[in-house]
Amino acid sequence: MASVLGCVLTVTAVYIGGGGESSKQKLNCVKVNGSKSFALEKMGVLRQDHVMPMPCIGGVDEDVDALEEHLRQNIPRRKQMVDPYRLGEMVEKGVGYRQTVVIRSYEVGADKTATIESLLNLLQETALNHVWMSGLLSDGFGATHGMMRNNLIWVVSRMQVQVDHYPIWGEVMEIDTWVGASGKNGMRRDWLLRSQATGIVFIRATSTWVMMNKETRRLSKMPDEVRAEIAPWFIEKHAVEEESPEKIEKLDANARYVHSNLKPKRSDLDMNHHVNNVKYLRWMLETIPDEFLEKHQLSDIVLEYRKECGSSDVVQSLCEPRFNQNTGLNGHAVSSQILQGNGLLGALNQRPLSYTHLLQTKGESKNEEIVRARTTWREKKHGAKLFPS
Amino acid sequence: MASVLGCVLTVTAVYIGGGGESSKQKLNCVKVNGSKSFALEKMGVLRQDHVMPMPCIGGVDEDVDALEEHLRQNIPRRKQMVDPYRLGEMVEKGVGYRQTVVIRSYEVGADKTATIESLLNLLQETALNHVWMSGLLSDGFGATHGMMRNNLIWVVSRMQVQVDHYPIWGEVMEIDTWVGASGKNGMRRDWLLRSQATGIVFIRATSTWVMMNKETRRLSKMPDEVRAEIAPWFIEKHAVEEESPEKIEKLDANARYVHSNLKPKRSDLDMNHHVNNVKYLRWMLETIPDEFLEKHQLSDIVLEYRKECGSSDVVQSLCEPRFNQNTGLNGHAVSSQILQGNGLLGALNQRPLSYTHLLQTKGESKNEEIVRARTTWREKKHGAKLFPS
């Protein structure tokens, strides 16, 4: 398994758990109503509704900073059923999470529909809020207390997003997210995005997560104590009917489109100081020719993560239309063309409807894969026709 | 005035008005409970709470698309006092707007604090939601019905943002925004961002808007009918104590730092098909040396907009530390250094704490200014110390 997966970006480190607390963590010395909660009194107006236990104070600057961060973030240490500020609630008998979001003006592109980057951001946000609400977020990046004790972090190995409809500016959406088992040592996280007005499903997504030792950067089995924390949150329910089993082939220097010398900028780094997922996606999509992007919209993306990308890496983005792959024609597009009487030649003259992608770091001696991906596209329609007319 | 200002990006086109409705606009043929609202019945579950009048149907595709967009966006056509999905409410006797927002995981940078880009996005979002709630948003970009009749749009001419504290991931903020008069033909829009828990003000911002003819792209006087719409919303209250009166000098090819050949990408365009404000900001900030950015945080920015930037423009970003300007030393930084006993030489050895910026399009015959700016910075502190300890 370790050879297939790699260490990955990402702040999303999406876990949801339900277990015990360490008494050794700095922030775990808690007295809600005790003598150490003096800062609460000094704070003046404290208007948040959550239960907000306080860490103890060590008297040194770091502790004061930690306290301040704790007060300002207000991460709950007990499971919350509703969050009035995030418009979040626990569903699925208290183990799934639902959040209502409004598509914001800056989350849409020139065509007034949400960008795929914004949608990925919302997946990350709701996943982290799920963990947040669970009361077990210990380090801010999704690790459980049991994981912290074992020096483990979550890394994402695979993600698939299917977009049937793109939400538009101002549209109210409901995002459901939940977790399930994935093999013996992994976790699956799924999402469903629905129109709040009609219940129509716009987007389905699934992802796979494994644990990695923070120091050795090697993948790890799931310790029993961690399984005990998170297993109670697992649901046997899949957002994506059948995960695409087709392997994503590795591109090489012969790829049709190549963008080289891509350098992460300060603004591309997330809280983990890794290049964020959205930047990966932009690098990949910007390698597809503009003429194609103008007339098509993304309907499906599968990402296979291999290695994390840091701020000093120099990245190369490779992209190959699947239509011309030796490994096979773009089956669906071709056969529908043939059915329409255009024949195989007609089909071959068509634009591709799928691309294979690779992001890799260009090292002096060797290249290292960051992420492979496959994108599938459909022609843009004039209207989305989500309401009967 | 027309020579000073220019046509500008921006989707923000921030107006708030309160007046009549045109009976000639396509979407204005409204029968809420009448025979034409058949789509409402067909829609099945309709769970939104707003009053949602329906446009009439012309029977052609564009009308169906317009109807669908109308239903999905659900822009209210009457003033709303609260918006449960945006966590928005009217304040200041019903003419100001307040929205509660949680800083999201992807809105913060590597240091866990909200990026200035995210903050500008939130200003845009709340301004548009203010207009949205007013019931008078006619074209989706902020124009009033009176402006639509006169073929006018809003353009921003100046913006200033003062950041005393940066919110952190998960922090709950309250954003207030309101409008006021600015001269005879302009409008001012202000914002205040406060910690929801303590009421401490983190950010103050102000902006100036004028009207432009959509076809001729020339600035326009404010027609009486438009004044009648928007004047009732004006408040005599300023978020920024004293707007910086100092003129921003125009940089030329002698500027210390120059980034050339900057090209907008597809993802940089907003709903108006102009380069969005955040991209401007990135281009400007990325021209400042990395060593400086690592140790400083932005405390104040003034932007003077001159011309809109389209997708085919090639942009140059110029940047000059103010410390070394002939036009004067960085007054505040120098005098505080002198007061601290370092003398003028000591002060001159310090890093600058202010930069002048210019974005311009590089034409074949001449360059054209897009935006001038001045940024002011402070050294990064270990902790923000917003709570007494």
TrEMBL record, chains A, B:
Keywords: Chloroplast, Fatty acid biosynthesis, Fatty acid metabolism, Hydrolase, Lipid biosynthesis, Lipid metabolism, Plastid, Transit peptide
UniProt cross-references to InterPro entries, sorted A to Z: Acyl-ACP_TE_C, Acyl-ACP_thioesterase_NHD, FATA/B, HotDog_dom_sf
Residue ranges occupied by any Acyl-ACP thioesterase N-terminal hotdog domain in the UniProt entry: 96-230
Domain (Acyl-ACP thioesterase-like C-terminal): residue spans on this chain: 256-378
Cellular compartment(s): Plastid, Chloroplast
Residues that span the membrane, as ranges: none
Principal location listed in the UniProt entry: plastid
An example molecular function term from Gene Ontology annotations: hydrolase activity
GO cellular component, one term: chloroplast
GO biological process: fatty acid biosynthetic process
Domain of life of the organism encoding this protein: Eukaryota
EC numbers for this chain: 3.1.2.-
CDD domains: 4HBT (cd00586)
Function: Plays an essential role in chain termination during de novo fatty acid synthesis.
Family designation: Belongs to the acyl-ACP thioesterase family.
Protein name per its UniProtKB record: Acyl-[acyl-carrier-protein] hydrolase
